[in-house]
Amino acid sequence: MASQPSPRRLRIGVDVGGTNTDGVILDPSLASSSPSKGILAHVKTATTPNPSEGIMTAITSMFTQLEATHAADIRPQDAIASVTIGTTHFVNAVIERDPSRLSRVAVLRLSGPFSKHVPPCVDWPEDMRSLILGYHARVKGGLEVDGSLISDIDESEIVEQCKEIRKCSGIRAVVINGVFSPIDTVHKQEERAAEIVRRELGRQEVDVVCSKDVANLGFLERENAAVLNASILRFARRTIREFRQAVGRLGLKGVPVFITQNDGTILKGEKAAELPIKTFSSGPTNSMRGAAFLVQSQDKDGKKEERGRGEAMMVVDIGGTTTDVGLLLPNGFPRQQAAYSELAGVRMNFSCPDIRSIGLGGGSIVRKGKDGIIIGPDSVGYRINKEALLFGGSTLTTTDCTVLANPDITSIGDASLVKDALTEEETQQFKAMVKSKIERIIDNMKTSPEDLPVILVGGGAVIAPNELQGASKVLKPRWSEVANAIGAAIARVSAVVDTIKSTETKTEKQFLEEIKKDAIEKTIAAGASPESVEVVEVEMLPLQYVENKTRFIVRAAGNFDFTRSDDMSSDDDKKAPSEEEAGVGEDVSEPQTVTDTKPKATSPSEVNVLTYTPNVLNRIWHISETDLTFISTGCYVLGTGGGGSPYASMILLRQLLRSGASVRVVSPADVPDSAAVGCGCGAGSPTVSIEKLQGDEMMQAQTELYKALPSSGQNKATHMIALEIGGGNGLQGMTLGASCNMNIPCVDGDWMGRAYPTKWQTTPVVFNERSPVWSPIAVADGNGNVLVMPKAASDAAVEKIIRAALSQMGSQVGAADPPVTGAEMKRWVVENTVSQAWRLGRAVARARAMNRLDEVAETIVEECGGGQKGAAKVLFKGKIVGVRRTLRMGHVYGECIIEGTDVTDDTTTTTTTTTNDGRRRTGDRLGGQGVGDFTGKRIKIPFKNENIAAIRIPAEDGSNDVGDDENKELEKQEDVLAIVPDLISVIDAQSGEAVGTPEYRYGLLVIVLGIAASDKWTGSQRGIDLGGPKAFGFDHLKYEPLGRFVKPVSVIDEFDRSTE
């Protein structure tokens, strides 16, 4: 009887990079018991224009190795269980704007009256938008945050839109995007609409993508991701079919082909063909997970060490040009970026690994300057074998210097060629600089002061020292040069559940257990073996201003179940491609250039932010797009962590400007005493605002208010003013006053000078000249429901009643407040806050333009008058190491713990961008002030939607626990660095942008700023009582001014070009 073939157990991992294609054949059963780690073959070969050819070359080479070493017991065609591929092929198609690989897309929004002012792809680069977006329309549909209907879909509407889409040439995909569709488990609006579109347009003619299948909460960002995904679908299908056919031609019939995705897990080939966008950033993740695998269960001195199991590890990948660093969490997956990521200028909200880079690699050029050695950031890159001194070239590189400094290294080039390249003093300086650069970026990525294992991988790892400060151990494992292919081979299966639940009838704990089970079931359905699945990530976010609602995010992961390989293999490669696909599917090679095929961009010419001046004529400031960008950035800084991101409001107002509307801002001093100054704002949950984009509710509220006002007297507003300059409401005065809305100027000021959580925390209430000020009031939900309060007992009553109505009005409304006289406005207003926001935003933009983000905090301080009377100061620099949140009476309370550290990487720290050829490029950024007095210290920031204080806390215990309310010691007055009503703002040290309290997360590098509050708050005890510590429950602390308030400098006064 013939012997039975050995069971399939071997995994092939292939990573197709821009320069090299790496591969491994791995036997998982030997991973922990063999010195070889189960790696039976490995290869590094040049990437080919058609990646399938490179994949075949790599696998064929490994089969040759395998047959040479294991011919007696392994026949590759019978032993291979899976082939897993990581590729940059899909992302490069997007980055290169290649029309031959990208399809035109139509978008149907199920949003009813919402999002009408913000069309699809509105924030895209113009060339990308014109290339991909072919048609868009809004139809009925969408959900509220509680799962109830905004409106049901109307089949006839969708059918009519399909007729319009059919008239448009070249549309090959349709995206369906519904408001709150990710939580739609009952009505299934997107799925129903998708079936109608397929029926009307033909299943073979167009791809239909439901946005909920692509990304989670965040209407615009989810839509962006879905559109990009839809555009690349046909190319992805062709490519993955080529991958499968290449594997089949190697005799691996029936072997499943997987594609690695961004979070370090795998997608079946056919699923990756449906969701190619989830593979865009898989390369760095593969490298990190491969590195961790290589150091697990290593033998040392005859004893087996368990490493990487249940502990975080830092992976340092040193290439030819850059050093990329990522943190692998104890759950085995890389730490992810903050909520939003960007690709090719498109903002999206799916997970990507948090990778930071510095301009240091094996090919970095070393120069001798007047002040000593200078390393990089430029590099000889792949030309190192020709240009480095070791190989007979003329350029001094870090590899040359490393060989010179370490005579034991004899396997790289000709050491005699570098013997006189540096003096002994220069050699020691070089070693110290390399060590310092790597130590700094490692420290910046850590989330606690404890030392972590550091794994060095990549072709340039030879330049790194064997000991690093902050590292419990430094490991340079064998096979590190193919760590990315190993990561692909060992990738796991995962699933994520992101949903919102009402905790009115069940506790958060009960819901969490149910959602965990759901995540586990989804993971098993995706191909994981049931016994290996575990929950690896849990996040619960209570929703402010939404009664009894919590957002749950749960991730589960497990090992692939190879007993189901036959189920996972696909017959897709046997199917005949569609006529359209067949016509262009013969060659999936990446073009060498696509410059001539790109549509011409029609966006406005680039503005030089260093020389830009605003248009102020006859003391009227005419707002431009550049002004709006500055103001929006500054509004979030002045939001002190609250107020919601101004992003959606900025996009809406920018659309009005692009449609021809004019927006005017005037000085408070120029407003007549008899004027009527109106006010409007949005109220509700920031979580709702990112899904249910503004419709006409702001203007509806204004219309209903003026109907309710007495007919006598000056009732119609002649000017508008923002309720609060902080956050998204900082732009509402300008939006309402735009020529296409109320067509009146906006006052350069507001009623808070910041953001506060309640309506009674406003300067008109502080002055208390009449009460109530905020009645009558009208609110509208944009969906036909309006509430008018003609009369109220107090401003506090207005707040309570409107908040109570919010939950029945979709947790988001537009509000209209009654006008005040010009004379009242001048007494109550916090002056020139639009100007202040503009200046803060300009400071951030200029810092970026000059690559001086290390100095952005100090620049902001100067703009706020810090250099004059201590009106602003840098309170702290460090990284977030602890966050706690809880919901009380609609407000999110919590604490953020920050540990002092150096938030700049180095004098050659770089920012990373993506070039048109898909490669990452680093830009030099000069270093700034050191960490100074902040090292080893900690502060906490308590918040109630907005930041309340910055308070020193002991750092001796090293704990990241924010504690609980019952057992917590009261704060001491002497530990207070700043407290309300002064502004405590947190900005991202790497971008200069403000960080809102919902965005606080572990490991984020931040700078804490203190800005003195307006004297409209601090000039009376009533102001301090309403806006100070007592109003937030900190009765044991008293307000002590940060410094002396300096009135913001008016843009109108500085730049006015008055005519005679």
What does the secondary structure layout of this molecule look like, with pairings?
Layout: E1 10-16, E2 20-26, E3 39-46, H1 51-70, H2 76-79, E4 80-87, H3 89-95, E5 104-110, H4 126-132, E6 133-139, H5 155-167, E7 171-178, H6 189-201, E8 207-210, H7 219-249, E9 257-260, E10 266-268, H8 269-274, H9 282-295, E11 298-300, E12 303-305, E13 313-318, E14 323-328, E15 341-343, E16 346-348, E17 356-358, E18 364-369, E19 372-379, H10 384-387, H11 398-405, H12 424-445, E20 452-457, E21 471-475, H13 483-489, E22 493-502, H14 508-525, E23 534-542, E24 549-558, H15 565-568, H16 579-584, E25 615-617, E26 620-622, H17 625-638, H18 647-658, E27 664-666, E28 676-684, H19 686-689, H20 697-708, E29 719-722, H21 732-737, E30 746-750, H22 763-767, E31 777-780, E32 786-789, H23 795-806, E33 812-821, H24 822-828, E34 830-831, H25 833-849, H26 856-863, H27 866-869, E35 872-888, E36 891-900, E37 909-914, E38 920-925, E39 938-944, E40 946-947, E41 949-953, E42 976-979, E43 983-988, E44 1005-1011, H28 1015-1018, H29 1021-1027, H30 1051-1055
Parallel strand pairs: 1-4, 4-9, 5-6, 5-7, 7-8, 13-20, 20-21, 27-30, 28-29, 29-30
Antiparallel strand pairs: 1-2, 2-3, 9-10, 11-12, 13-14, 14-17, 15-16, 18-19, 22-24, 23-24, 25-26, 26-27, 28-33, 30-34, 31-32, 31-33, 35-36, 35-44, 36-39, 37-38, 39-40, 39-41, 41-42, 43-44
